[in-house]
Design goal:
By secondary structure, the chain is mainly beta. The chain has one helix spanning 115-120; strands spanning 2-10, 24-30, 34-37, 39-41, 44-55, 61-64, 68-71, 74-84, 90-99, 103-104, 109-110, 122-127, 139-140.
């Protein structure tokens, strides 16, 4: 199995929803409950993580590890938005799906992470943290892995 370094830059951050930005929590979901917090940047957040990669049934990259969600051929990462609760806990209220596997949607498609990128050892993506209405971006993000 190979390892792939993944860097995700999130920004700009939401401008609506939370009157106190310090009360907003953002992390990559690990398993069902835990989150991995990122590093604060001016106007955003950065996540540097490692995922496993093996050959899928059809020869495509298949991603593994505690941060990876979904079925073979449909793997993704979850960015979890939450409120900072007691004891600095993360109280989730929204999630944003970042596909690692290829995806095709009505209005857009993404090739996902390719074997060529896996061979280079790392990928990066920049994703807006703010949805069209200024609230925390949720649903499925259009991700272009580089």
């Amino acid at each position: 199995m190979k390892e792939l370094r993944v860097r995700i830059d999130i920004g700009p951050m939401p401008t609506v929803w939370c009157t106190d930005p310090s009360a907003l929590s953002l992390g990559l979901q690990s398993g069902r409950e835990d989150i991995v917090r990122g590093t604060a940047l001016e106007g955003g957040m950065r996540f540097d993580v490692v995922v496993g990669v093996k050959r899928g049934r059809g020869g495509e990259p298949d991603f593994t590890g505690p941060l990876v969600h979904g079925r073979p051929g449909d793997r993704f990462l979850y960015l979890s938005w939450g409120r900072v609760a007691a004891d600095n806990e993360h109280d989730m209220f929204r999630r944003l799906k970042l596909h690692l596997s290829p995806v095709s949607r009505k209005d857009w498609s993404s090739s996902g992470v390719t074997w060529e990128q896996v061979g280079r050892g790392s990928v990066t993506a920049s994703v807006s943290g703010s949805g069209p209405d200024g609230t925390p971006h949720c649903g499925t993000a259009e991700v272009r892995w580089k």
